[in-house]
Specification:
The protein is of the alpha+beta class and about 400 residues long. It has a domain of about 220 residues: FAD/NAD(P)-binding domain (3-Layer(bba) Sandwich). About 35% of the residues lie in helices and about 25% in strands. The protein contains 13 helices and 22 strands. A 7-stranded mixed β-sheet has the order 6-5-15-16-17-14-18, sandwiched between helices. A 6-stranded mixed β-sheet has the order 8-2-1-12-21-20. Strand 20 and strand 21 form a beta hairpin. Helix 9 runs antiparallel to helix 10.
Amino acid sequence: MENTPERILIAGAGPVGLISALRLSQAGIPVTLFEKEDRLLDDPRAATTHPATLEMLDEIGIAEEAERQGLVCEEFYFWDRPKGEIVAKFNHKLLADETKFPYVVQCEQFKLAKITLAKLGEFSDCEVLFSHEVTGVKQDADSVTLSVTNSDGPQEFSGKYLFGCDGGRSVIRKSSDIGFEGFTYPERFVVYSTPFDFEAERGCCYRNYYADPDEWCNLFKVAGDGPPGLWRAVFPTDTAQSDDEVMSDEAVQARMQKFFPKDGDYDIVHRNVYVINQRVASAFRLGRILLAGDSAHLNNSIGGMGLNGGIHDAMNATEKLVKVWRGEADDSALDVYDIQRRTTTHEFTQAQTIANKKRLETKEPEARAKNLQELRDISADPERAKQFLMGSSMLSAVRRAATLGLD
């Protein structure tokens, strides 16, 4: 396809970059997307798709397929792990008068990426270039230019605007000298996947949060390649242990048996360890460059808000860029994107994910008992439970963003 500046450029073919490309393509805007890998990777990272996000996926015609390939989850539970009891149950049915999607869909992010890529095949003016690694960016008053390396060597591509969706180590963000403020947790998170049926054997629902003063856990189910599906257990690591020690068979079985004792070893089909950050870019917009997804913000995975927030970035930014492209809004609309998404990232995603972690890991007995009792009280009161769900479903964040503008 001809390298013409009358295009939108996108760095990164994760779900955020692909969804940005799809929304723009559906509006008739030419797009070129660059991805350093030679294909989409089957990386089992994020899986939770919240009601607010399902509404957005429905707008671009992929919610139904995501639901078909995933698992529908109406409930989530908080557990007191030392006592082995459920503290609180929350049911998204309480949101039935607020959203078309009063449930969560557990659809792994690589499935969402593949669904979106397949949909992009309908648009002849959308080009997805694999094995094209972005190495730098520059801009002037009229255009933005990407430096890209592929099998033919260094090249340059020009466009009207650029979406930086190239992850937490974003070349776009770094090349643009945009700060990435926040902190890194001292412990990493380790994830183990197993086909063991926690629903039948342990009374779990598809999303479970275990509070424990020594070592908390998240446990949730994904569809995997089909029945019976897989259960993912997420734990904090011991900072004194190396990644190799954390991932060893002995450590895996010890950690799983401590939380969920059973006869015999667990069948572990996947394991990984992650560094966890809480960071937000100092700007989501710099001239003709827009940051979205992990390039713009990182948070811990408790509550499943990272990828969802990235999709919210994509939908918010593309909505405004379509209007700018068509002459229906001036360039200042992109400043509103920055204000809306950066504000709600701080107020909701960062605040809630940090609070979620503290809720599960609290060690002091009195504070821990207070946290668990508060969850009991909230879940027992339908009105308070609904407000809690409005936050966890990210509906409150989207509605808050809509109230923000340049004033």
